[in-house]
């Protein structure tokens, strides 16, 4: 049996095949990790951090993404605690700890007393996948955004982020970086919106995608237009576009207390497939 700290080392390009085999155990839940691996080839300079692997008898049994986000991957309780003990030795550089709840909880229990008080803990976040036919018709006015939409779209992105995360993405001089991220999503064809009379009334983005799955983020309707069904019809349209052009399976995760969003996703054909937790600093 492995003891904590045993068998853990940073992965590199030579480990890519083994890592993709690991993420393939649950390719929808692991879409972020697989996307990061495919786009960086596990090179630290492109990762902006590391991915730690835990090995047993030559087999990669679990991993942990260590960058802006700390994400346990296919980690059981013992794996999570082992990654936590390794993380305790580091100065905290991550802003978010996120992943499946059964791994996040022991990981946080191991490192929490050394990493300081988090800004927020969200323990109950249903991970959803569109598995049923939508109960509503896709919104025909939802489309991919273009660079010409940027000045209309950007304020909506800031409003969504601020409402969801609790701080503005422009805090601390982050405006240029966040604008660049929004433009990047537009350029990839991963940004979608319904725009009426110069106002975004629904928007969503693909956060990451692999040949198997895409994860949606940033779903938002302005407060004065909520309750009209824009989110459900908009998500039905976004899922159709994603399935046709990006990936065959669509997922997201949502806060348990966000009842209106959960109803909208249910109407768009989403079912819970796992439970996530997020700790934000």
Give the name of the CATH architecture of the largest domain: 3-Layer(aba) Sandwich
- Count of domain modules: 2
**Average pLDDT reading:** 95
What's the helical proportion of residues? 25-40%
Low-confidence runs of at least 5 consecutive residues: 1-5
Number of helices: 9
Number of strands: 12
Return the CATH topology of the largest domain. Aminopeptidase
Terminus-to-terminus distance: 34 Å
Main sheet: strand order: 1-2-3-4-5-12-6-11-10-9-8-7
**Cα-atom radius of gyration:** 19 Å
Which structural class do you get from the secondary structure elements? alpha+beta
According to CATH, the homologous superfamily of the largest domain is Gcn5-related N-acetyltransferase (GNAT)
Biggest sheet record: 12 strands, mixed
Order of helices and strands: EHHHEEEHEHEEHHEEEHEHE
Which CATH class of the largest domain is shown?
Alpha Beta
Beta-strand content: 25-35%
| General shape | globular
Characteristics:
281 residues; alpha+beta; Aminopeptidase; 2 domains; twelve-stranded mixed β-sheet; 9 helices; 37% helix
């Amino acid at each position: 049996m492995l003891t904590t700290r045993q068998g853990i080392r940073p992965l590199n390009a030579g480990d890519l095949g083994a890592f993709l085999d690991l993420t393939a155990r649950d390719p929808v839940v692991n879409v972020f990790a697989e996307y990061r691996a495919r786009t960086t080839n596990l090179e630290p300079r492109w990762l902006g951090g590391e991915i730690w692997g835990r090995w047993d008898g030559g087999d990669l049994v679990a991993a942990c993404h260590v960058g802006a986000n700390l994400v346990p991957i296919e980690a059981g309780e013992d794996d999570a605690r082992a990654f936590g003990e390794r993380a305790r030795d580091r100065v905290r550089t991550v802003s978010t700890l996120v992943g499946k709840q059964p791994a996040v909880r022991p990981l946080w229990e191991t490192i929490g007393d050394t990493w300081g008080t988090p800004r927020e803990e969200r323990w109950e976040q249903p991970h959803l996948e569109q598995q049923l036919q939508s109960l509503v018709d896709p919104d025909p006015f939802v489309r991919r955004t273009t660079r010409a939409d940027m000045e209309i779209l950007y304020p909506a992105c800031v409003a969504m982020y601020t409402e969801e995360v609790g701080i503005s993405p422009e805090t601390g001089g982050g405006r240029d970086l966040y604008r660049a991220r929004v433009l990047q999503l537009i350029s990839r064809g991963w940004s979608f919106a319904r725009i009426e009379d110069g106002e975004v009334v629904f928007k969503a983005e693909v956060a990451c995608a692999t040949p198997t799955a895409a994860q949606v983020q940033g779903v938002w309707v302005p407060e004065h237009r909520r309750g009209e069904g824009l989110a459900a019809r908009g998500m039905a349209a976004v899922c159709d576009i994603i399935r046709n052009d990006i990936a065959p399976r669509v997922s997201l995760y949502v806060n348990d207390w966000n009842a209106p969003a959960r109803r909208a996703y249910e109407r768009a054909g989403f079912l819970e497939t796992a439970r996530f937790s997020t700790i934000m600093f």
